Each structure stands twice: as C-alpha cells, then as structure tokens.
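Re: beginner question about structure tokens

> Can someone show what the tokenized structure looks like for a real chain? I only ever see the sequence side.

Sure, here's an example I had lying around. Input first:
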Amino acid sequence: MPLTRIYRGTDEPHHGLDALPAPPPWRSFDGGPPLSTPVDEEGCAAPSAHRAGTFRPTPETVELVNAALYLRRPLLVTGPPGSGKSSLPYAVARELGLGPVLRWNVTSRSTLRDGLYQYDPLSRLYAANQATGQAGSPGAGLDEHLRLGPLGTALLPYARPRVLLIDEIDKGDLDLPNDLLHVLEDGQYEIDELVRAAPQQPEAQVLTADGRGRAPVRGGRVRCRAFPFTVLTSNAEREFPAAFLRRCVVLELRRPEGSELESIVKAHLPGTDAELVDEILRVFLARREEGELATDQLLNAIYLTSRPELTDVADRAALAAQVMPYLSRGQEDDVF
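And the corresponding structure tokens:
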C-alpha cells in the first residue's frame, strides 16, 4: 500500500499534515513547551503566493517531498537555473499551511552561526553603560541584543514544522555542510552567551528571524519538537561529503520541456495569446539547444513581447532572443 501523500502538489491548501505519523524513533525530538506556528494574515499562504501557486511539481518531486516529511530529513534539491529549486518550499508551505518560509541565502562568507543567531556585544555594553554608568551583570539585557537567524528560528519547539529554505548551500564555506550536519541531525543548538548567563537569566525572550515577535529560550538551549521541513538548494558547483548526503533526501530537478513549459507559462501569464506563446517557446527551445537558458528568461520574453505597447515590433522572435542571453560564459551568441 502506498504512503499517504501529505504533500500532494495540487496548490490546494489542506490539513493533510495532521495525518503525518510519528517520526522514526531516531528522528524524534522533544523540545518544548510547544510554540504555535505563525500563519500569514491571508491564511495558510506563503509570503509569496504567486511564487507558491505557480510551482508545478513533477510526480518524483511530490514523492521525495513526502519522503522528507515522513523521515524528518532535509531535502537537498539540485538542478539547472529556473527549474524551481527555491520555489518548492514556498509551494509546500502554502499547501500545508505552515506559515512564512524562513530563508537563509548562503554566501561565501556564511557561517553556521549566521544561520543560528546574531549577537551584538558592543550595543549591549553601550546600553548597560547608558543605564548604569558601568557594565551590567553578565546576564543583564541579553534579550535586546540577540536575534535568531532563519535556521535558529526553524529549530524552535513549534508544534507544527516550520519551512526553511537554505539557498545555494554550495556557495558556502567548505566546512558549512558538515557544520550544518550536526545541527540538523540533532535538531538542537546552544546560544553560548545565554548558556553563560543562565545562572543570572534562566530564560530569555529572543527576537525571531520572521519578525513575528519573541520566543522563549531557556538555559541558552534550543531544541525542536517538529523537525522543520528543510530544503537545501544547490547548483551542483561542488560535491558534498558522504556523511552529509546520506542524511538528506536528494532530489534532482531536470529542465522542464515542452508541455511542462507551457504549463508554467499558463500559471504565470494566464490569458496570453496561444500563438505568441508557441512562437516564443520555439525560439527558447531552439536557443536552449545551443546554450544554457533559464525558465524565467522565457517568461520575461513572453511577457515583453505580449505587451500591447509593442504591437509595432517587426520581429518578436528577435526581441525575445535579445532578452534571453546565454547564461554560461564563452558561448557565442550572434544576436548582439
């Protein structure tokens, strides 16, 4: 008997997450007491309703998202530009009503601590001196100078999982995957400053990354209850350690082809003239045979050439080609 699909890929919000069974014993977490999952003002919609609503998952994507949900494991998503890697978590959050997506954009300078929390000791010292004329006690006023990062917020003890996007993890430092491995494996971390201050300040109210207020942190330790649905995207710029890969569910997205591209265009640009879509799509597919292009370039070209202000453009195909330059260096393009 097949598994019950918690995520169905239909873009129809539902409460299917309630049917998710208990996690495997080795992926059970007991942080607490439980916090309520924030919900957008519009209901169970992600911050970017358009981005979520226009994502078109393949059957394989639906199956592997459900595998990650059942196993409480991160989902490592690879694929070419424009394949929908970073849109996937928004679609899952919208359909399952999991509130705003927490997003961490990784750069070459990113460290694990950037994702967990930020602490400003200078502002705390200044505030203490302003208030008392001298540095305060070790535990005084820490709440005001700490802010949880996206990863740190996702691991709070929410009753229902948060959705976390760690975007372009392969751009990070070589040690970042292994550093992430331990936090995501254990579902917990410590805030060093609060651990040291625990005798004077057993509980702190710390700002969260989503701007939804403060969350209690006791003894400087944070442990999740519901493991966050975590999507890590990669452009396959380098290989990951085997220890990291075996703890992830791995999904490789491929380039969308003809009918899939048509579906994506209809979702983003409903009502566009079918003949125009067909014409620009042929240009896109022909150019993609010669070099790397992304789906959003196709959308740009169709939107631009469909504008009524451009009805006097003699050659729409040439204009479309001009706004679809190749993404890889060294590829010749005789359009310009």
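Each token stands for a local structural state, so reading them left to right follows the chain. Residues 41-47, 133-139, 332-336 have pLDDT under 50 and may be disordered.
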